[in-house]
Write a structure and sequence with these properties.
The chain is an alpha/beta fold. It has a single domain, classed as Spore Coat Polysaccharide Biosynthesis Protein SpsA, Chain A. The protein is built from nine helices and seven strands, in the order E-H-E-E-H-E-H-E-H-E-H-H-E-H-H-H. The chain has a seven-stranded mixed β-sheet with strand order 3-2-1-4-6-5-7, with helices on both faces. Helix 4 runs parallel beside helix 6 (about 180-195), helix 4 (about 135-150) packs across helix 8 (about 245-255) and helix 6 (about 180-195) packs parallel to helix 7 (about 225-240). The radius of gyration is 18 Å and the shape is globular.
Length: about 280
Amino acid sequence: MIDRNSRPHLSRDDLVVVIPALNEALRIRDVVEGALAECPHVIVVDDGSDDGTAQRIADLPVTVLRHEARMGKGASLRDGFARALEMGARAIISMDGDGQHRPADIPRMLAAANRHPGHIVIGARLRRRSQQPIYRRLANEFADWGIAWGTGYQLADSQSGQRLYPAAVAAMTDVPGEDFVFEAQVLISAAQQLGTRCVSVPIESRYKCVHSDEQFRPSHFKPLRDFTRITSHVVFGVLRRGGIAEMFRRIRANPVLIDDPSGEFASQPLEDALPTRSP
């Protein structure tokens, strides 16, 4: 059990890593071992896998929650958050089980959380963006624009699944939406209910490409289907609340917040800072 009141700043011992997993036998062991190297508390939520995902990590010191049938990423995150809070987590790191996210980025996200207390920290895939399929990049940018209408501020890579959530955000119960819609809505609900905003930490885009022998399973995210769900969910919410002109002014007044001590991204506007080729 984590002592939430033991220190003012977050440390690795205050974190719980939550990894939703659906048929991740290919990479799950590497992901979990990497997470354990950065944080002693790891939860894997096996969302009805039928490929032996849970068996691949059966000997590792992690908590495994099992859905007998697929319930979706939103349900996996909700269940993982609930167990992490029971363990006393002061903050929760979410990351996917397919190997796209690097556990080695967790210390950088933790440092950003301490520099920006109370913020959601997004691992934004801004580095080596040439590895990201162009259709995914354009779709992500469109999603950032759309979700800003729900949050009232601009953000970078709203679709990244590698995030650090303060305990207060993870404890919210009135967060509608399932599957990938949940990840969009939790940002919106945190902004509207708690006044919480996001800070982005630049991380690498990691996809299967001709210059790498790393293997990744096909993404569970289907851009046309899932962006349609996310966009319609956000649009209907904006229309219900009204105040479109005021929201537009708020968005313009709150540019993207990037935590990057190197200065590569933080010292200039985001659209000018994005690299056009791999370093």
